[in-house]
Amino acid sequence: xxxxxxxxxxxxxxxxxxxxxxxxxxxxxxxxxxxxxxxxxxxxxxxxxxxxxxxxxxxxxxxxxxxxxxxxxxxxxxxxxxxxxxxxxxxxxxxxxxxxxxxxxxxxxxxxxxxxxxxxxxxxxxxxxxxxxxxxxxxxxxxxxxxxxxxxxxxxxxxxxxxxxxxxxxxxxxxxxxxxxxxxxxxxxxxxxxxxxxxxxxxxxxxxxxxxxxxxxxxxxxxxxxxxxxxxxxxxxxxxxxxxxxxxxxxxxxxxxxxxxxxxxxxxxxxxxxxxxxxxxxxxxxxxxxxxxxxxxxxxxxxxxxxxxxxxxxxxxxxxxxxxxxxxxxxxxxxxxxxxxxxxxxxxxxxxxxxxxxxxxxxxxxxxxxxxxxxxxxxxxxxxxxxxxxxxxxxxxxxxxxxxxxxxxxxxxxxxxxxxxxxxxxxxxxxxxxxxxxxxxxxxxxxxxxxxxxxxxxxxxxxxxxxxxxxxxxxxxxxxxxxxxxxxxxxxxxxxxxxxxxxxxxxxxxxxxxxxxxxxxxxxxxxxxxxxxxxxxxxxxxxxx
Length: 545
Hints:
The chain folds into 4 domains: 27-148, no CATH class; 155-291, no CATH class; 321-390; 396-538, Heat Shock Protein 90. The protein is 53% helix and 11% strand. It has helices spanning 2-15, 31-47, 64-76, 80-93, 102-116, 126-144, 155-161, 176-183, 186-200, 212-221, 239-247, 267-277, 283-304, 312-316, 320-353, 358-386, 399-414, 433-450, 505-516, and strands at residues 165-167, 172-174, 225-227, 251-257, 260-265, 395-397, 419-422, 429-431, 458-465, 470-477, 520-525, 531-538. The chain has a 5-stranded mixed β-sheet. It has a 3-stranded antiparallel β-sheet with strand order 3-5-4. The chain has a two-stranded antiparallel sheet with strand order 1-2. A hairpin with a 2-residue loop joins strand 4 (251-257) and strand 5. It starts with a helix and ends in a 7-residue tail after the last strand.
């Protein structure tokens, strides 16, 4: 999981400019320094300045000079010593060298290189020498393991490739893809990265992104012994992707001998790769697709506008990802509103069953439970209908029947009665009927929550205004009302006057009636003593308000 830790550190430091003085992603080890350290170690070995610590692994029968040539070739081929030093530096910073300066860390790496070629150099502490040997063994296995040779997982490059950061000439900034990753933990964070990779993949040999075809191949070939040649065009995996997935904890790659491996996909890997190959839609995958689409669109806008200034309005336009997030919050808000009364009634019933007769307790509590469950299932049915709205054009509909449907539904759900005065000749309005029903339901539900059952007075009026160019819907109650200084703010997302409220219901009201139906919504004081909500909607064919 070292790669994930490095990625998290890099993104957090990109997000927080104050932390950018720390080491971010790239190693501080200079390639030229690492190569020189190796040459100095080999010169020491050659001049016998130190006795060899152990016999060096070299082909049978090699003499001292042949051994030097073998070590020289082994450690400089494909810059193995550079990659070893960079791997070891990262391991040291996670062990006893955390907070060490670059010079202190380089001194440790220098000792490790000398011990790797067979010299007897040691640290002052035998315990730390043992720990250095352990870390060096891990770094060496990563460098010389046939399955992972000539690999190096470049964290900043990976973050840019999957669009977790946006890199311009002078700045690196965190994108929403990176922000979501930082909010997630454990397996969900891995799922997010893998989804983002597959959505943007450019094929099975893409070194930065897992492709759906490669995911399918991994499932088919798990625990099968594979023979391959490096750069074999028929080998359907990129080594960096295999290495990265192993760092994600999804699989392991066991090297039996050069050009012979076994890939083992673990339980979490099977679960995630199945989701990818079967294209299973989840809330996280919907958000991932939306964010990638948004960032792609914005990138195109920037390219097209490279010789002009990108307008503020184009950047602030409501995006698919924002719509997805709003929809998710709205669903959570509605489901909670319908299930909280059910939970309250059930908790009360459980307590009462300890002391009362079951039939009496059930008779007392069942009605509220049934109403809440019915309301939940009605909302789910509405949600299924709403899922088709994105492809459904705005259409005229009769507002009178929509208002009556809201009143009937809420009377059944809450047991409250409403005093309704509805004009029988309301002209058609244009929009999505189901969305209007949901928004008006939120206003009326707020009125029931602000009043006492049995003493509540909730009035609903609907009439034509402005020479029949608009309709006006008024909802007022005898509750505590809304303080004057809050009457505009309550329509902002996250603002609620009710303890435990989410502040999403009235935000949806404004979105539907003002943004979608081109009308107006306002709140003031009611003569009844509580709040009055006024909605004005232009009739079909009229100018927006």
